[in-house]
Amino acid sequence: MIRASRNHPGWWAALGHRLSGLALALFLPAHFLVLGLALEGDAALDGMLAWTDRPLVKLAEWGLVMLLTLHLGFGLRVLALEFLPWRDPLKVLISLGAGASVLAGLLFWIMVS
Amino acid sequence: MQDTAETEEMLEVEIWRGAEDGALRTYRVPRRESQTVLDVVTWVQRNAEPALAYRFACRVGMCGSCAMQVNGKPRWTCRTHVAKVAEGGKLRIEPLANLPKIKDLATDMAPFFEKWAEARGRHEPTRTRHEPMAPVSPENPARAAANAGIECINCAVCYAACDVVGWDGSYLGPAALNRAWTLANDERDADRCGVLRAVSQSGGCHTCHSHGSCVEHCPVGINPTAGIAGLKRMTLAALMRGEL
Amino acid sequence: MLEARLYLLQRASAMLLAPLVLLHLGLILYAIEGGLSAGEILGRTKGSLFWAGFYGLFVLAAALHAPIGLRNILREWTHWRGRSLDLATGGFALLLLALGLRAVWAVTA
Amino acid sequence: MSRDIETLRTDILIIGSGGAGLMAALHALQADPDLDVTIAVKGLIGKCGCTRMVQGGYNVALAPGDSVERHFMDTIVGGKWLPRQDLAWKLVDKAVERIHELENELGCFFDRNPDGSLHQKAFAGQSFDRTVHKGDLTGIEIVNRLMEQVWARGVNKLEEHRAIELVPARDGSGIAGVLLIDMRTGRYRYVEAKAVLLASGGGPTMYLYHTPSGDKACDGMGMALRRGLPLRDMEMVQFHPTGLLAGTDTRMTGTVLEEGLRGAGGYLLNGDGERFMTRYHPHGERATRDIVSRAIYAEMRDGRTTPNGGVYIEMAHLGPENVAKRFKGMVERCADCGFDLAGGRVEVVPTAHYMMGGVEFELDCATALPGLFAAGEDCGGVHGANRLGGNGVANSTVFGGVAGESMAAFVKAGASWKEADRNVIEAGLDRAERPFAAKGGDLSHLRERLWRLMWDKVGILRDRAGLSEAMTGLGDLRAELHEAGLADGDRSFNLTWHDWMNLESQIDISAVIASAALAREDSRGAHYREDFPETGSLEETRFTRVTQSEAGLALEMVPVEFSIVAPGQSLIEDEAGAPPTAAE
Ligand SMILES: Cc1cc2nc3c(=O)[nH]c(=O)nc-3n(C[C@H](O)[C@H](O)[C@H](O)COP(=O)(O)OP(=O)(O)OC[C@H]3O[C@@H](n4cnc5c(N)ncnc54)[C@H](O)[C@@H]3O)c2cc1C
Ligand code: HEM
Ligand code: SF4
Ligand code: F3S
Ligand code: FES
């Protein structure tokens, strides 16, 4: 399914951007919902604390942060491509953008885990 | 010298036969020292499969008729040396992607050219043949930008490489938008705003996701990604000015 | 010129989101490094007009940005086109906005 | 069953979509927007033919100090006094308006000087720098812009349609239409038209080494010949001295390496590694196309060749980086083909480039068959014995436009659709069906034999014995072709069927070239007879005219009328319009 014509950094970056964006778009409402729900009522704070301590939720939250970082990196790459009038180093930029975001993602992962 | 037939080093070549419902068929083609992918296809037509359909004209990379998928990548076949692409003596040659197949390696390029026209891909004159020519400084940045995209041979390689073309049938594609970009930068054009309007329709420049497969594959080194980005900026500016 | 407007909105919201997300991530990092618990964080955001504005803007931008992106993905990866898709993604925008604002309220009020 | 014909009807039918065909369509519609215009072409509109391949550029007298008279004198002197002068005048005169049309109305990007004015470069054989260009890809620029305008004008498109017969009216009053093959389906089509333009662009593809695009096979000239139309100057086949040589198995072979390489100081070396040009001409490598081609051929005939049988071009002494920068396009093309032009040696060979001869036509592009017009490389008379680089695309766009206007006027004057001569249609079908009835035969082998025969006997150096042999050989080849069969399976997009028909056109026109070359017993321009090396008296210049009838080919030597200027005179004071001889 991955055609040979797709095998270049720009394409992989776009795919990463899209998948992370998609995941974010699906996760974000859940994230909002959970935040909103958990804080309802009197024992809001305690409930919240207990809840976020659960490993599964923790993982999901970390995932969300990860995705956000990745998506940010790839998104900045797109914005740079489209709005900075750099013409010639474009190809380099495409690769750099991709590389940078992956790196940023990894760094973040290492720092938080 | 040109004939290595004695040792008969062979290529294993899979070629698409038929239209949409076709299939790959394998041929064994003698390897030559000077041999392009078009030569391989020609050999098969002349020696193995007389009814094989393919398209070419200039054989030197000027007419943009001969593009095909070679081992999965769109390429101009008349200027693709076999040595550069044959992986382990194997070639897979298919009709250009994202276009309707007519027969074997020949596609119907009509949608590609229709979109070119849809992007208002033609000059609207400000002067007639009876007037002197407009002086245009080659250093003028707009002229330089147009110049960088003007030598497109309309081979549709970028069109075949772009995933968005495959995903969204209305997307004009890199070549048509690149042509629009050259027009939008041409001070001699009478209706540059018309170009911006044409490329702001559904399927226009905003549909591009800057994948960069077009610039990656363009055989003549044109950068549609940059041109399309330019169109995006220009159309936004026009939108803000209320000119769209 | 719907496409041009959507494009403008998406890129503008992305430009807005970029610094917001950076700050948000920074905050989380800082919190983790500083060993702050969720409780401590909430303690700081509660009643802060700044954080209410910050996250309000975040939610607004995301509610513009994500549905437009989703619309593109659906148009390109599925056969869903036209009015029903526009309505559905519009609905998604409202949903995000509502859930988001409620969460902001919960965190900062 | 397979002989079924679908019939269409149009006002104006244009055969070919090079500079001539596309320009004609635009001009016909400018003259009368209500006309129904159809282009039928062997390839895709604008993406085939040689106009697209123009590298050098477009000759036109624009610059201060240059003049139409000067361009005219260069054309006549370059053509060795053989051109039909009123046609040559029309070319140089109309070119001025045409280039303005291309730039102003069609939007062509032509290169500029720093002050914003049009850049005009030097090109061989001209007394002034007058070649307008877009880098070294001028043809792409011109044809792309023409094609875009044609799409927008509502012209009917019959793409991948091959014309196989010009069909006259039953009552003999003129042309009635054209029989075609829809190459995609393999079915026949007859298009009725009030006026027809022949713009299929000739093209000397019957030579072992040749430059034109693969769709060109002299079909137009062949069809005209069968209708009894006279062809003139057919012995005049221009060879470009430096075609790429990479063996006969690759289509790269024969394609042009630009003249500028020699102009810039490139060396030609024979197989022994020796620079030989200085032995033939004081200007060495910078001598004119014909002289260099003959010298290379002589080296080849004497056996001092490279492995593939040609000579080398070498640029490295000019500094590989410098060469790579200055001739970027050529260096890249050679690299794609596996050769290092900048730093190494590349094998080259003279290659058949252009046919100066063709169908006789009038100033308004009319031919002897009422309703049939002709323009571009299909026509003879404009260039005489030699075409100046840069006059080819001017020729096709100038006369294409003229033809468009003439056809519109012809239709307006009351031309009507005519009943076709069924016999001619049947004969056309018979010819096209022939390979399916025959058995066996090796087309590739026949093609190779034709190529070699024309190259060896009717090529750069000619003599009576060789030309006579060629006439016999061509007869044999035609007979063998008619025995060579094809399996009647899938006719859609069947390139081998079209290869067969290409060969037939090429053999027919080869015979005309050979007989004209046999008749011309002097040497001038592109035609060189070793048994008659002298040019002879210019005052008594005659051109060859070949016609075909039931009895076979008939040849006439017709005196050239010096209607504007006679040998020894000039339109420019104190000058005979003698062009410089350097290659650049
Ligand atoms: C490599 C190269 C470089 C050149 N460089 C220059 C230059 O620098 N300057 C210059 O002035 N000239 C140059 N020329 C010459 C120039 O290209 C021609 O003189 C001119 O363009 C011919 O134009 P045309 O319209 O007559 O024919 P073409 O442009 O050749 O078009 C012929 C058309 O007829 C079609 N056709 C052929 N047979 C049939 C058929 N049976 N049925 C239907 N359609 C048919 C073809 O497919 C094609 O579309 C060059 C030529 C070549 C090959
Ligand atoms: C951090 C700040 C963000 C930036 C800089 C950013 C940037 C971008 C950009 C430029 C695009 C357009 C990509 C294209 O069309 O090719 C995009 C697409 C998208 N974004 Fe974001 N974004 C950000 C945050 C978010 C958030 C928080 C979400 C989720 C809620 C999100 C979801 C999406 C989606 C679903 C897409 C569509 C992807 C596609 O079309 O392939 N983005 N983003
Ligand atoms: S931009 Fe490049 S790849 Fe696309 S059609 Fe033009 S020449 Fe071909
Ligand atoms: S590959 Fe396609 S998505 Fe845009 S950058 Fe090129 S047109
Ligand atoms: S045959 Fe013309 S580009 Fe390849």
Task: Describe the protein.
- Chain A contains 4 helices and no strands.
- With 113 residues, chain A is mainly alpha-helical.
- Chain A has a single domain, classed as Fumarate reductase/succinate dehydrogenase, transmembrane subunit (3 helical TM bundles of succinate and fumarate reductases), CATH 1.20.1300.10.
- By secondary structure, chain B is of the alpha+beta class.
- Chain B has 2 domains: 104 residues, Beta-grasp domain (Ubiquitin-like (UB roll)), CATH 3.10.20; 131 residues, Fumarate Reductase Iron-sulfur Protein, Chain B, domain 2 (Orthogonal Bundle).
- Chain B contains 10 helices and 7 strands.
- Chain D has 584 residues and is of the alpha/beta class.
- In chain D, the strands form 4 sheets. In chain D, strands 1, 2, 6, 7, 8, 9 and 16 form a 7-stranded mixed β-sheet that branches. In chain D, strands 17-15-10-18-19 form a 5-stranded mixed β-sheet, with helices on one face. Chain D has a 4-stranded antiparallel β-sheet with strand order 11-14-13-12, with helices on one face.
- The C terminus of chain D is likely disordered.
- The interface between B and D is large, with 73 and 68 residues.
- The complex binds flavin-adenine dinucleotide, protoporphyrin IX containing FE (HEM), iron/sulfur cluster, FE3-S4 cluster and FE2/S2 (inorganic) cluster (FES).
- The site of iron/sulfur cluster has 15 residues of chain B, from helix 5 and helix 7.
What attributes does this structure have?
heterotetramer; B: 244 residues; alpha+beta; Ubiquitin-like (UB roll); Fumarate Reductase Iron-sulfur Protein, Chain B, domain 2; five-stranded mixed beta sheet; two-stranded antiparallel sheet; 7 strands; 34% helix; elongated; disordered N terminus; C: 109 residues; mainly alpha; 3 helical TM bundles of succinate and fumarate reductases; 4 helices; 88% helix; binds flavin-adenine dinucleotide; binds protoporphyrin IX containing FE; binds iron/sulfur cluster; binds FE3-S4 cluster
Amino-to-carboxy terminus distance of chain D = 57 Å
What's the N-to-C terminus distance of chain B?
Answer: 63 Å
Helix fraction of chain D by DSSP (H/I, runs of at least 4): 25-40%
- How many β strands of chain D by DSSP? 19
What is the CATH C level class of the largest domain in chain B, in words? Mainly Alpha
**Sheet bearing the most strands of chain B, described?**
5 strands, mixed
Small molecules bound: flavin-adenine dinucleotide, protoporphyrin IX containing FE, iron/sulfur cluster, FE3-S4 cluster, FE2/S2 (inorganic) cluster
- Note the total helix count of chain B: 10
Percent of residues in β-strands of chain B? 5-15%
